[in-house]
Specification:
alpha+beta, 151 residues, three-stranded antiparallel β-sheet, five-stranded mixed β-sheet, YbaK protein
């Protein structure tokens, strides 16, 4: 299922939400951070993707509760991310992921008419509406997956 929007190649890197927002001239919250986690339990590891608004932090304590999975949430290393998703860290796209990866999408992204996600490369992004990204990813929407960082 294609996204139908033009992929934008940036001159500068979009490895972080701040970098991408500066390059695009959009609020940092309109940038989708595609974060990869694994839940470890007796059955092995379960890969999870969290799509978080660029101005928020992921509440990893909520992941197992939202998905109703027991286990310990961990951040995988770069090689594991590549093995699980097919993408390198800094360019992980929320679309084109293996179908067995559960995706949680931050409801805070709905504040923006257009949100921007990595398109598989550290210099490439694509725009979408909140509803279109939800449809493309088949993500579970949550208002518990993120929180506002304290200064």
């Amino acid at each position: 299922m294609g996204h139908g929007e033009q992929v934008v190649e940036l001159t500068d890197t979009a490895r972080s939400a701040l970098d991408a927002s500066k390059a695009l001239g959009v609020p940092v919250g309109a940038i989708v951070k595609t974060l990869i986690f694994v839940i470890q339990n007796d059955e092995g590891i379960t890969p999870i993707v969290c799509l978080i608004s660029g101005d928020m932090l992921c509440d990893t304590d909520q992941i197992t509760e939202i998905l109703n999975i027991d286990g310990k949430v961990k951040r995988p290393d770069a090689n594991t991310v590549k093995d699980l998703t097919g993408y390198s860290i800094g360019g992980v796209s929320p679309i084109g992921l293996p179908s067995d990866i559960s995706i949680i999408m931050d409801s805070a992204l709905e504040r923006f008419n257009k949100i921007w996600s990595a398109a598989g490369h550290t210099h490439c992004v694509f725009p979408a509406t909140f509803d279109r990204l939800k449809e493309l990813t088949r993500a579970q929407i949550s208002d518990k997956i993120s929180y506002i960082p304290s200064d």
